[in-house]
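Quick question about two entries, pasted in order.
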Amino acid sequence: MVQVKIGGTYVGEGCPPLIIAELSGNHGQCLDKAKTMIRLAAEAGAHAIKLQTYTADSLTIDIDSREFLIDESDSLWRGKTLYSLYQQASTPYAWHAELFSYAHELGLLAFSSPFDEAAVDFLESLSVPCYKIASFENNHLPLIAKVAQTGKPVFMSTGMASLEELEEAVSCARFHGCKDLVLLKCTSHYPASAEGSHLRTLQDMASQFNCVVGLSDHSRGLAVPIAAVALGASVIEKHFVLENDTDAVDADFSLTSGEMKSLVTETRRAWKALGVIKYGGADEEQDSKRYRRSIYVSAPVKADDYVSEANIKVVRPAFGLHPRHYQMLIGQRFTQDLAKGTALNWSMVNVEDSQGDR
């Protein structure tokens, strides 16, 4: 059984899905707002919150040339430079200790995605329980090595990585000491489409890398993460936003507290529905077996009357003989007078090879 332990929480086979609320830059660089988001995420039933630990300078260069401009026609941030977007969305380092402490008070796991090696040192000083490698960073092998060397569990988003690139990233993490790895299927488009999610990859990733798998989801709504749980995802990460905060940087693909509560409820329900391989009916179906079919007398008969299609019938409920005996009974004789609606049993017919089952 493949599992990872993070703090006191087990993640993986046999465990309900771990739901992570990603604050990203939706706090709008307001500390009180960030704390409100954490409180509402906890009230909604999320199990963890995640921050992002970077500065604009640790991610890019302050240049407005075309290469550093977001110009995709369908981007939520079209027209911004990379530097200005990261300035707007970053979480101040000075907040981290307070936000982690507040999350712990509310019973949440709290960790972050570092975006450079210095951020790892900073997060280590705060004793985070685990790390996340963001999808755009999974080719940053020095960062992966630095995180792995902490010996703590690592979540890694797959994003645009090819299988070969993912093998390289996973090998790097394991070589440098990562023993507990969770790969998160991720489509790095914002918002991501359902058809671009390719969730069947989850089962292949689990097999290829012998690790716990999950989903870091940027699609709208709940359908994709619920389907992911049905396909074996043990972790679901979704961006979180306050109700009606439509100006938040990632609002378009983030969940409100009500939606997060539904995500927690429905993914756990989907996980419970997986159950085990079982035939013969669930425990709750046992009482319903009485309403299956069996053979009943359908018209009054006398002793020595022939059994015929006119006087027996396969009906509900299931207190008579099994329907498999119907053709064999035709042409036999009744041993006694019987009223319409009598559940037929072997004592009521004269059959030499009768078997005493129903």
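Here is the second entry:
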Amino acid sequence: MNLHPELQELQDFLRTALLSPARPHQLAISGSDDALTWLQLSVAATDWAQRYQQCQQPAGTPVVLYGHQQAEFAVAIYSCMLHNIPYVPVDCIYPKERLKEICQLANAPYYYDVVTRQFIATGEAGSVLDEPNLAYIMFTSGSTGKPKGVQIGRESLWHFMKWVREDFSLPDIPVLMNHAVFSFDLSLIPLLANLATGGHIVLNAKEDIAAENWLERLKNNGVSAWVSTPSFAYQKLLSPQFSSDYLPELSVFVFIGEVLNKALVKQLRRRFPQAKILNSYGPTEATIATTVIEITDEILHSENDLLPVGTMMPESRMEITAEGELIIWGKNVMRGYLGLPQENAEKLLSHENEAYRGYRTGDLGYEDGLLYCQGRNDSQIKLNGYRIEINEIENRLLAMSGISEAVVLPLMKSGGGVLRIAAFCVTGLAPETIKTSLSKVIPPYMVPSQIIIKDTLPLNPNGKIDRKLLDTQARTN
């Protein structure tokens, strides 16, 4: 089959990077289970594909990958990329019910259990995806009450990989820190940067990060590039070892997933005076990120309280509507949500004068020489970098037997950002019972930390639920 030149270019690159690595004996992946050189990765990626062939699935059938920060998880992802197998990453922090639901939505006949290294039949019939040459499907929180699958093409993956290599100020052979679960697309920045540069990615499981000596792991591996949400870096500032004295190789920080504020940048400047600090922005629907900028001292000391999110990647542009909504046009825009034609019609745009698709982000922003992002026009929030649809949590609550009314509120910090999630329920159930039931169908970061039982929900003069009053009650409860 003759591939489009761009897809052939990606295929040729992957073959060289994974099957004929330039530095075969250099470490490629350090995971929670194992550490692999590029040569060992090459063997493992080939072995994974050969074992998958025994499932006898036609090309274009998705496979679900289920695990947590193991080197084997990265092997499976790289092998899927190399062999043009569309993959669906699901972290085991998700309950099994969520895994089952995603397998159903993707109509994936098998999922790969990374821990046991077995392909497990899901009971789904399986079918070839309508979209050809997909790289992956990333499931995010959905406003309808079910997760929705974002379909990213291989052309977008290749476009992003080249951009990261050229514009993210990475060392020549970086050692990249990853803390994000593979079902959160932030993880693809270090994963793809590692491929693009022939570097070394250090994967960090939850239990590793929680350990007192976690920074020692980064030091021993000579981590030079940090990729995380701002919230994650804030937590690490509690340790005096989080500094250039202890981590001398750390030369670049890449932040995405949340608003980066000046207070964090100033503290990092003091701890890592020589390091570059990059701010990046982009929804999952636009292939991980679509802007980047280095936060210089001039930007840091400007009068604007907001930090800019940067300039657009090549072959893309930002449109800002009269209402302030950001619309991304570019090669990086998704192929659409899996099996959701109505949402695709609402969110995806095309125009005869545009070479690529457009995506209505729902984010609000403005341009003043540089691009700035300032909140949402809907009920979607970010908590510790995770994208959460408040409506999904409400729908899950209302689906539970014994709950007649439910309202979920994000409680905001004074300086912006989400402090925690609170839920108000009219029910006879106990809060812990509700949390336990929720934890069986949604990931832990979506379970409200505060559940308040009410006899009735208060109404405002317009007859609508008084959310401002509930917000006040949650803060004083």
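Reply: Residues 38-53 form the longest helix (16 residues). The chain has two domains: 5-370, 383-476. Hope that helps.
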